[in-house]
Design brief:
The chain is of the alpha+beta class and 277 residues long. It is built from six helices and 17 strands. Strand 2, helix 1 and strand 3 form a beta-alpha-beta unit.
Length: 277
């Protein structure tokens, strides 16, 4: 069992993730027990998968339940495997499909892992979902950025994307935990991707993760991939392109995520560093 901070070079920053490495995955109830004991928003469990070197079966557990995909634990797992001599190019078989991860040397001797998502999808947010989410956040329709209408985006799991006009609205984000958890379970949402567009290629984000038993996630790779799909579908970015997401600042765990799109590939790439805690 390893503990890493993803999307940072500072063990006190980023998003902590558990990474369990073994010869075979434990039973599901044991993985759930371990994830609850570790207490991070997610723990990734990995064991070799048939098909050759660099292939792994992976399952992700929050303290409360299994989740289909977790970006920051994937980044942490990629760095952990590369540091232990595994191939730089990895294939991780999740519950919902294969994720490609590549790891390359970065600045100051840090490893940079890049995950390639499953094929994403984007749809407009239902009016009732958006109204209920705004009510729980105590936000008004006038607080929203009309240039970035709300949507539900998928890049492994589903996220409600809500953009606000002003950073002050995002900075003051708060909500009632139990009603938000119920809403997210009802609509099969993994996080709310709440964003403010700082510039054309820089966003600030905060991600409630009530379904995982966590008030807020300091770095969310899956939501970053979903945002990349959303921006591409709207024509806000055109391949080849990349942009950055600053997240976790308000929590005291600053994180930096880089999102990229390439021509002729619908999948989204999310890159970041990870360091041992």
């Amino acid at each position: 069992m390893l503990r890493l901070a993803a999307f940072t070079t500072d063990p006190a920053g980023g998003n902590p993730a558990g990474v369990w490495l073994g010869d075979a995955l434990p039973p599901a109830d044991e993985m759930q027990r371990v994830a609850a004991e570790v207490g991070y928003s997610e723990t990734a469990f990995l064991a070799p998968d048939p098909g050759g070197a660099g292939r792994f079966r992976v399952r992700y557990f929050s303290p409360l339940a299994e989740v289909a995909f977790c970006g920051h634990a994937t980044i942490g797992a990629g760095v952990a495997l590369a540091e232990r001599g595994h191939p730089a190019d990895l294939t991780l078989r999740t519950n919902d499909g294969e994720i490609v991860v590549s790891v390359q040397p970065g600045p100051d001797d840090h490893q940079v892992a890049t995950l390639t998502s499953v094929e994403p999808s984007v749809r407009p947010a239902r009016a009732d979902l958006l109204a209920r989410a705004l009510d729980l956040l105590a936000w008004q329709p006038g607080d929203l950025d009309p240039a970035l209408p709300s949507a539900v985006a998928f890049a492994g799991v589903h996220h409600l994307i809500v953009a606000v006009r002003d950073y002050a609205t995002l900075a003051g984000m708060a909500y009632e935990f139990d009603p938000m958890q119920a809403l997210m379970l009802e609509y099969d949402l993994t996080t709310l991707q709440l964003i403010w567009r700082e510039s054309a290629l820089r966003f600030r984000a905060r991600d409630p993760f009530a379904v995982g038993g966590v008030v807020e996630d300091p770095a969310t790779g899956a939501a970053a991939a979903a945002l990349g799909a959303y921006l591409r579908d709207r024509g806000e970015i055109v391949a080849p392109a990349s942009f950055q997401i600053s997240q976790g600042v308000e929590m005291g765990r600053p994180s930096l995520l880089t999102v990229s799109i390439v021509p002729d590939d619908p999948r989204i790439r999310v890159s970041g560093t990870a360091v041992a805690i």
